[in-house]
Each structure stands twice: as structure tokens, then as C-alpha cells.
């Protein structure tokens, strides 16, 4: 396995911004539809979302071989939701239950859309 870019000091791959921005484009409107209507809340969420997506994809690319990839994705997604929850509790505030359900819904939407797109592209 290749060492992680975060360990070696090499920069993250620039093209990882594409899925990160697409994910934020899907999840931020869901976040807004769930009642987080303040611009500040949505900007914090989008920023947190982009960072966690970059970290997730970099980790999966550098630490997971093909045999582990399918098993690691759901577990890593759960860890990402936990991290987003902790960061959003600090920056966005509000009810913990409502925030958790909102994060679960927004991540489920982007994960589901990603599966549909992958299946469509891969045949």
C-alpha cells in the first residue's frame, strides 16, 4: 500500500475536489431543506462536508486495497457522519437529535445518488 499523503506530506490529489464539491452540492440543499436556513449554518456545513469528503477519499485511495474497499466504505461513511456531527454541533448548534437525523439524511442522499451514478456509468 502507498503511504497516506497526510503522512508523507505530499499534497492531496487536486481532482479529489470534484467528488467533494459534488457531494457538498447534493448534501447542502438537503441540510437547508431540513431547516438549517441561516447562510452561516449552510456555509459551515458545506465547508465541513468538503473537508470530510477529501479526507475520506484520500484515506480510501491510499489505505484500502480493492478487496477491502467495499467493506471499508460503509464503515468510513459512518465515521465521517460522526465527525461531521461533532463539528456541526460546535459550529452550527441546535438540537443534537435533529442534527443527527439531518446528517444521516444528507449523507444517505449523496451516497444513494453516488451509487446510481456509478451503476449508470459502469453499466
Provide keyphrases for this structure.
single chain, 123 residues, mainly alpha, globular
What can you see in these coordinates?
The protein has helices spanning 5-8, 17-33, 39-63, 66-91, 96-122. With 123 residues, it is mostly helical. The chain has one domain (34-122). Helix 2 (17-33) packs antiparallel against helix 3 (39-63) and helix 4 (66-91) packs antiparallel against helix 5. The protein is globular, with a radius of gyration of 15 Å.
Question: What's the layout of helices and strands?
Answer:
Elements: H1 5-8, H2 17-33, H3 39-63, H4 66-91, H5 96-122
Strand share of the residues?
under 5%
How would a textbook summarize the main sheet?
none
Distance between the termini: 29 Å
Total domains, how many?
Answer: 1
- Unreliable residue runs: 1-6
In terms of quaternary structure, the protein is single chain
Q: Radius of gyration from the CA trace?
A: 15 Å
Coarse morphology: globular
DSSP E strands, number: 0
Helix and strand string, N-terminal first? HHHHH
Average pLDDT, all residues: 88
Continuous helix count: 5
What level of helicity do the residues show? over 70%
Q: What structural category do the secondary elements indicate?
A: mainly alpha
Summarize the model shown:
This protein is mainly α.
Amino acid at each position: 500500500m502507498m503511504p497516506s499523503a497526510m503522512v508523507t506530506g505530499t499534497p492531496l490529489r487536486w481532482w479529489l475536489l470534484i467528488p467533494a464539491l459534488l457531494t457538498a452540492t447534493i448534501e447542502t440543499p438537503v441540510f437547508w431543506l431540513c431547516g438549517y436556513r441561516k447562510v452561516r449554518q449552510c456555509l459551515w456545513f458545506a465547508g465541513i462536508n468538503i473537508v470530510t469528503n477529501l479526507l475520506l477519499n484520500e484515506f480510501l485511495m491510499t489505505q484500502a486495497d480493492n478487496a477491502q474497499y467495499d467493506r471499508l466504505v460503509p464503515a468510513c461513511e459512518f465515521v465521517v457522519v460522526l465527525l461531521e456531527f461533532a463539528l456541526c454541533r460546535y459550529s452550527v448548534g441546535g438540537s443534537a437529535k435533529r442534527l443527527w437525523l439531518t446528517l444521516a439524511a444528507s449523507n444517505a442522499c449523496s451516497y444513494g445518488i453516488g451509487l446510481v451514478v456509478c451503476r449508470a456509468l459502469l453499466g
